[in-house]
Amino acid sequence: MDTQQRIKQIVDGNNVVLFMKGSAQFPMCGFSGRAIQILKACGVSEIETVDVLKDDEIRQGIKVFSNWPTIPQLYVKGEFIGGSDIMMEMYESGELQQLFAAA
Q: Which residues constitute the domain of residue 75?
């Protein structure tokens, strides 16, 4: 299975996926840490996290998969939402909470 297929399988197989640096318990960058805090503030308890620092193929491949240059990257129900800046904007506007309420 190639990297793009692996990523698609992860995204399709989980309701909420965050490709990040580190883990939810131990984020390895400020942006990843902020993304986890935003998800927790939205009441999301089941988050599948993928540590891109442990797999360079995933780290490079996710940027191609989403056509988005930075990490973290959030997917909800298979749809790419964005990185931590977009998550913060959506959280502040209430849009992210509505997304999870609908999901």
A: 3-102
